[in-house]
Amino acid sequence: MKNSKIQDIEEIGEKIKRPKKWKKVLHKIEQMRSSQTAPVDTMGVSFVPDKNIIEISPQIFHFQVLVNALLSSQTTDQKTSQAVDQLNSSLKILTIQNVIKTSESQIASLISCVGFKNKKANYLKRIAEILHNKYNDNVPDNFDDLVKLPGIGPKMAYLILMVCFDKKEGLAVDTHVYVISRRLGWVSKEDNNPEKVRKELQRWLPRENWKEFNKLIVGFGQEICSKIKPKCDQCPVSKYYSNSNSNSNSDSDSNSDSNSNSDSKIPNQKIPNQKIPNQNILK
Ligand code: SF4
């Protein structure tokens, strides 16, 4: 992919330059997603509450969202959901108080299906103590306090703010958002880390689209445009690619697990040698 941001843009007002046809492409993805569910729809961060509990307080919901986000790093939605369910059933309900009462080793064993279980168990115990002692058993509703919590990075903080407090302060750029934004030419090739991609997307994507954006793109990545072996023959947006300048290596620096959620660097991905429509521009 060449620098589509520069080659193919539309000017909005004086300053904001957006990729051409971005709205149409997003709409096509929305249509595809409305007829085809993905793991993120039933196991994503906003679906954390114990399914056996009819109603939980906002306080507990916020904590469970945070735990889900914490566990989701480098882990699939399925495994994350399994771990949260396990915590909910074994602790009777996943609350700050119950995490404080439970030993770190027991928590590690309850979340054994996720990656880095020992580290995450340690983070979870420390977070529960901090929320209890410093925030009166509440999850903080601002970015600065969230990213001070052990194991909580910017992507998680933005998701938590969005899901818990309806605050659109930033876009959560995980593996799918990173890879797909680059494939679609929504960011330039030089935007080669999640932070650069986040900033570039935030520069032009209207804020009204932020809330649904992550879930929309993650589901698209889980079902169609996976990092490894994207199903281009089923892709609703392939026709928007130009036929010239075909390039299948445009996302050559993202990471490995196609369905995992990563809040960390996305280094050195090798995309398989398969034909992918031109990832340069959207016409
Ligand atoms: S054509 Fe293939 S690589 Fe391009 S967006 Fe669709 S699935 Fe992804």
From TrEMBL:
GO terms for cellular component: mitochondrion; nucleus. Keywords: DNA damage, DNA repair, Endonuclease, Glycosidase, Hydrolase, Lyase, Mitochondrion, Nuclease, Nucleus. It is found in: Nucleus; Mitochondrion. It comes from the Eukaryota. Its EC number is 3.2.2.-, 4.2.99.18. Bifunctional DNA N-glycosylase with associated apurinic/apyrimidinic (AP) lyase function that catalyzes the first step in base excision repair (BER), the primary repair pathway for the repair of oxidative DNA damage. The DNA N-glycosylase activity releases the damaged DNA base from DNA by cleaving the N-glycosidic bond, leaving an AP site. The AP lyase activity cleaves the phosphodiester bond 3' to the AP site by a beta-elimination. Primarily recognizes and repairs oxidative base damage of pyrimidines. This is Endonuclease III homolog. SMART domains: ENDO3c. Residues 265-283 have a biased composition (Polar residues). Residues 242-283 are annotated as: Disordered. The gene is NTH1. Residues 71-223 form the HhH-GPD domain. Pfam families: HHH (PF00633), HhH-GPD (PF00730). The keyword Transferase does not apply. Its main location: nucleus. GO terms for biological process: base-excision repair, AP site formation; nucleotide-excision repair. One of its GO terms (molecular function) is oxidized pyrimidine nucleobase lesion DNA N-glycosylase activity. InterPro entries: DNA_glycosylase, HhH-GPD_domain, HhH_base_excis_C, HhH_motif, NTH1. Residues 242-264 have a biased composition (Low complexity).
